[in-house]
Amino acid sequence: MGLYGPVHAGPTSLEASFNSGINNGWVKVERWRDTSSHIGQEAFPADGRGDQTGQRATFFADPSPSSDVFLLYHAPGWSTNSKTVPVLLIHGANQDADLAWANPNDAGDYGCGQQNCPTSGLMQSLAADDFKVFALSLAHKNGDGYIWAEQIANAINIIKNKTGASQVDLVTWSKSAFNARMYISSVTQAWSTSYQNDVRRLIMLGGPNNGIDWSFRHGWTHTFAVYPGCGGVINGPTAHDSILCYGIWQNGNQWSYASSYFPGSVQMLKRWDNTYALPVSEQDWYTTYEGGWGFYTHGQGIDAFLPESLVDIVRAAGTDPAVRVHNLCGNKADIALIHNEHTGPSDGVVFVSSCNDASGLGNHGGSATIAVNHLKLGWSGAGISQIKAWLNAP
């Protein structure tokens, strides 16, 4: 961890280019592969909940692609719009370039943080404002942060070659905000790419800058929403490796933070119980957070996984002072159909204090907190207006 990598991204190879029949307003999608041999196949849940769907499955040519592959989406005007610094949009966990940036209704009702979702997003707004806009879609929706950081570096390098620009602006969301910050801070593996002085601005939407403990803090309700034996379908890790559902014990690490399905999630963990008290009225609250057997659950506790957290490593590394960094945070804990974070001010998932944390930001250009939840930061009118204001600033 924290080792400086080689001096350039790549190597990468263009595998396929799609120029017609593309949904949601994109004009071109390319499939690229990192050919360095350092990135391989990550594990996908066997029930398909983490698979690529819709046009992404076609573009990836595999519903569970190897993580050395990524998609680069091109917006209208990507080669002709006049603003000189291209913009790369990068989705968060369990999202993709379509849902996050071009069609928040791509997953249907409730897929965007509220019941009814719009059919266009930030991509269309930025393209209409004369930006050269690209978006990255990553193979594994909860992938290792080191891999996401490397693929971000690869995508930036490709965009520089396509446009002739020396720098790119990044608009990132949640998990990708943390992983893009890893790149800017050169928190890399020995094989991966240290920062290449090629980012002008990093805009982070709902970024867990000082970590997250939500699934340990509210484990009972969250675990029910994940474990198949409890009727769960959410693609994310829980605090438990055993839970009693409908009179039957469900066991196994596959839906916990020890699982190989969610390697990027454990890297963003951090305790927040010294800032906001744990919800003592929730079932098995103590053993869920600290570990052990409760009445209906068992788990290892958050401390068992903190050695794998990169939160303090990233904060200590610091972002390159030439990169202006902005935090866009939400303060409405009203995401439909999930147990929202309510023990402190939050966007339903990330505490506002974690999102707004500026420790280690070498050139903090300012934060904004708007009245939306975590899933609305990138497509709400207030969010789009703030993002455009930061991108258009001198």
Describe this structure in words.
With 394 residues, the chain is of the alpha/beta class. It has 11 helices and 13 strands. The strands form 2 sheets. The protein has a 9-stranded mixed beta sheet, sandwiched between helices. Helix 4 (145-163) packs across helix 5 (175-184).
Amino-to-carboxy terminus distance = 35 Å
Shape: globular
- Give, in spatial order, the strands making up the sheet with the most strands: 1-2-3-5-4-6-7-12-13
The secondary-structure class comes to alpha/beta
Radius of gyration over alpha carbons?
20 Å
Low-pLDDT stretches: 1-7
Determine the number of helices (DSSP H or I, runs of at least 4 residues): 11
Query: In which range does the helix fraction lie?
Result: 10-25%
Number of E-type strands: 13
Order of helices and strands: EEHEEHHEHEHEHHEEHEEHEHEH
Biggest sheet architecture = 9 strands, mixed
The proportion of residues in beta strands is: 15-25%
Average pLDDT reading: 96
